[in-house]
Amino acid sequence: MNKKFLSAILFGALMVSSTGTFVSCKDYDDDIDAINKELTDIKSQLAALQTEVDGGNWVTELVDVEGGFKVTFSNGKTYTIVNGKDGAQGEPGTPGKDGNGTIVEVKDGYWYLDGKKTEYVAVKKDDLGKVKVPFINEAGMWVFYDKDGNEVVSEYKALGATYVVEADGVYTLNVPDADGKMQAIKLPTAGATLTDVELLGWAALDKMDKSLSQGSDIQTTLDIEYAFVGKIIQTWDNKETTWSAQKTVAKGQVLTTLAPNNTYLMARIDAGADAADMSFSLKNSKNAVLPVSLSAATEYKGLLSRGANGMYAIALDNTDAVYTGADKYTGQFTNGLYALVEKSGFISNYNLEVTTSEAEVVEGKVAKVDGKEIVVDNDKRYYEVNLNKDNVITFDDVNAKFVYDYYVEAVDPTIAKFFGFSADKSNGTFKVTKLSDEVTYATFDINVYKLHIDGKIYKETITIKPIRTLGNEVVYDLGNVQIKKSMKLNVSLDKMFTALGSDAEIWKNTALGVNGADATIVKDADKSEGPAITYTYKKADGSELANVNGTATQFDAVFSALDGTAATLTPGTGYTITINYKHDSNVLNTIKVKFTPVMPALSSYIAKREALWIGNTLMAYFVDPIKNQTDFASKYEMEKGFTTLGSDADADLTEITFSLDREQKINNVQVQNLANIASDNTITLVTDRDFNQDGNVTEADRWAYGQELNVKVAATYLGGAYKFTDEEIAAAAFKINVQSALKAGKIVPAAGASITLPAAAAGETAKLTADMITGYTYNNQPYSLFKEAAGNYKYSYIDKVEFFTTDAEIYTVTKDATAIKDAEGNVIGYHAEITSKNISQTTNTKIIVKVTDKYGYTKTAELPLTITVGK
């Protein structure tokens, strides 16, 4: 653990007088000016800093400046504490410039001053595990500790000093007031806000949004491939040299594959501060530091199967330490586990096992230049690069891990000059700014100097061909596009022309501009090839072009969603069409057209006829019989319940079928045995089986009648090449209740609560007529129970109506209605005749009315009947 303090007065006084000021960055001048007016004594000065701390801010940097030191807080505010005009000059114990601090740090367990070892031990408090830091005693002398933790007064005098000690993640600012008494304030660093750190392991991470899975992508065992750089050798002439390019490497260093392999520690860090402001190392349980460099933590924004919040990635690399041999490096590794340790002393779980293995270094070859692979044109091999772009080199996947650094130079600077070639050695990039005269030179060569981790430098010569490009890549995002049998994407080139700016005129120029194009379509998920597309370019007037040229303003991309009967698209998956517009073989510019084919919503092909539904139940009543109808099966055409059901159009052929739920049972019998749905979506109730096993097949055996039957939906799109989602299919399910419109209705007295008839005179009958009794269908539509004069029922549903007495000792009734005739003997209607018996008083009784419909269902009602006497 590196513990340090800055003592300005060891080498010159800082600020002690009341005339001292706080100086802030420009952005905060107004705020700090207001504070300055209140800084009349040391207490108010400290209060200003305390306000920052109380506000939840922490110190991100504390550095020496001329005449004092500067404190930077996490909110961006900076305060510079400088020497007071009348400040007392301290007596330096070690030479140094007034007003500048010296780093005092711990190495090998001792305090070092300016890199020189003192005899004073940096001991720890056993109970806290924190460094015991020096302090100034009342005599103004620095006090250190011996190896046993006892205070030792040193020879360093520090009377009147303003000094800062950094230890265990906290800066302690000590300022003497006018009486020489020390005023102190503790300023936390980012590490002091840590509450929890969990080291998950390491991962190869080439981008911060890469999806990772714990166990497969994130591992807890890390093997570091290394090589000892005994010499830096040029392999082409075997001469020893030095190296300084993007990185500087010295003899005696140990280089690893950590950085080339994009090796990152993955950790969950919970803190009130940004982990990027913290400083970490890897240590074992014996506090031994692993000789690996850790970068600042970077927030990880990808998907992690663990689902943890506060995820950070910390890049690993070798250090710049030098060794006399590889054994001095490997000797620092132990067999134990390592934890992530913040400089404040906060320790994570021990979850990383680290081993080393000597690398068998193989030369890494150039694979791509600026992301482009080599072009093979007959006997020519070259890499194309765009003008005015910083080009980077990448190496083959297998051996790239051995390439630690590289830079490029022109093989022939004179030729390269024709192309405006320049190279940036410190960044490993090169640029060309001109196309040379192709009659003279079309290409030029560069040397790629590659330093490998074993200190060997390889030289690889590659050929570069500058090409003209017009503008940057333009992306059209069409979003979701509904799948149809024939697909057509219409794309205007206006967006491309806008992006090209003045280069649009070159694109349209007959001599220099576009005269061809190539196009590909791939599925984004796996880069597999998409469907075959026909491109038709059009002019502004809509006329078609045989081939693309500078007059084109738009194009149609036409393709089929079917290859025979097979799907050519994957719904919900993005596709990218890449079109390279060319002048001869030179690519001028590129556009990408992105789209996602999606299924139409199944609900758009299923629309209920709401009048026939109650909630999600289709009320399926047998249709009113028509003249000469002979089929009176208990069935219902379910498609009547929908205004839209599928599509017969070739473009979006959608077939929807229904089936009964095989899991549903009635009286412990599966529903599909009680009813069935045909391929034309007609449901039919089973009426010819003795389900109640009483020896008779009757209406009582029709167990599916009047029940809510579960109906499942199946749907195919474009002949079954595409499928709707399981969720949509499940959501489309409904219920059906198959009934007789008559049986589902009612029969009631026409007026009042009872049918009232006078007792007939001796030898006569009372007449039960249509105005005394009424039938109602399921939806309360009235109908007559008696035939019309012509001998037929007006309500075509009725097959017959029968009447029965409930007490033959009170009255009898004709089972069937009898004709009513006029004086000429013509039938003018029908009624039922009731013959009362010898009753002595008005009597309340009941009469049974039974209506049978043509589908074989009966509606029976027992109605109140009052027979009056003496009226």
Automatic annotation (TrEMBL):
Residues 1-23 form the signal peptide. Keywords: Coiled coil, Signal. It comes from the Bacteria. Residues 25-52 form a coiled coil. This is DUF4988 domain-containing protein. It comes from Phocaeicola vulgatus CL09T03C04.
